[in-house]
Amino acid sequence: MRDNLKNTVNRRQFTKAAGLTGALGVTGVAGCLGGGSDRGGDKFKFGVVTSLSGDLRFGGEVTRRGYDLWKKTINENGGIEVDGSSYEVELTYADAKSDPSTGADAASQMITSEKVDAVLGPYSSNVTLAVAPIMEKNQTPHISGSAESPRIWEEQYKHTFGTVPTVTLIARQAAEEILSLDPTAESVYVSGVNGPFSKATASAMRDAAENKGVEVLAYDLNPSDTDWTSVVSSAKSEDPDLHFHGGHIGSHVSLLKAADQLNYDPNGFFCHYGVNTSDFKDGLGGDASGTFGATVWLPSIERTGGKLFGSAADYAKAARDEFDQSPDYTQAASSAAGIVYQQALEELGAAPPLSDTEQSKLVSILEDIEVQTFYGDVTFDKEGDFYHNNTTTSPLPVQLQGDDDEAVVVGSSASASEANYPVSE
After folding, report:
1. 168-295+396-409 fold
2. Nearest to 317 by CA among 339, 299, 335
3. What is the rounded average pLDDT for all residues in the chain?
4. pTM over 0.90
5. Average pLDDT, stretch 79-94?
6. What Cα–Cα distance (Å) separates residue 186 from each residue in 214, 266, 287?
7. Quick one: 5-164+303-378 is in which CATH superfamily?
8. DSSP letter string over 61-125?
9. Mean pLDDT over residues 83-92, rounded?
């Protein structure tokens, strides 16, 4: 059964008056306000709606770093070139506060008051599912550099695109690789948070196990504020070979801390998103080593290069220089979303601010675009269950290894390292 989140948000947002203020948390340079294309100014203005506070603030800050690094780099390189002239990029932020309704309100405010040319989207899938109908109603181009729930693409939103492949593909393929490690697992315990992204992740993990003929001892979805010691206690009593968990960084950390507290030690934990972020590693205080995850990008992976950043390694260096920490695939995909806009605007050939007609043409260009980036080739599906999702970037299973808990590719690929499995202390 489809959950009630989107229907509730749709009814609310399509009847809600625009121009809201106060709790929306709009930050950044406000720019010149006005009606339609008479905003004024000589910059392309992008609105960003993401979670800068609340439970999902860690991931929201990752998207912010990605969008900010793109803006900084494109402006240092002269801006976006249109018909012989160059235009800088301006970002104005709205804090979704990890809440779908707040995110939808912020998106409405962004469009009606800030008069943005286009929008860079939220970190989380539940906020994206609330923001996408607002983009649809206002016919505003919208690219998410993060959201992975398959529900977004099933809705067939014309104005929403995503640079990260759906978690249905990422989690399933990585899980199948981990389940094939020697000795082959015979049982798995699947836990997760009961939200759009996390539920889809856990479901894909369960499907992978069933496809491999591995016994699923439990499929256990919980509220985000659950007591994970209770979940771990139940899992420990089942004694699985592997434990798979679908969630965000906070629930990963809480689950693994509870496992350590209760001496629960299956042959390995697979926690899909964020295991190679500093938030995950710092949150576990040095106990992150051996955790399996999944990614679609690493600094060490050779990709096509192309616009703005010459290679994955070049991008990683720029990120470390700017933020003093290594980027993960969400940050990389967020920067890639900006690069996609960059090429699309160059192809559009219109100076800012964009008219309604020019925004519609921009959406048409995005549907057919092919961009070579440090993150990989980006194109968007034109039909089917993954409509407007970039499914071309291949997922890879990773494991944290070594003194620095570096994420290395494991599994069957030619470039894979040997997995520490069963995971040793």
Report:
1. Rossmann fold (3.40.50)
2. 299
3. 89
4. no
5. 96
6. 5, 12, 26
7. Response regulator (3.40.50.2300)
8. HHHHHHHHHHHHHHHHTT-EEETTEEEEEEEEEEE-TT-HHHHHHHHHHHHHTT--SEEE--SSH
9. 96
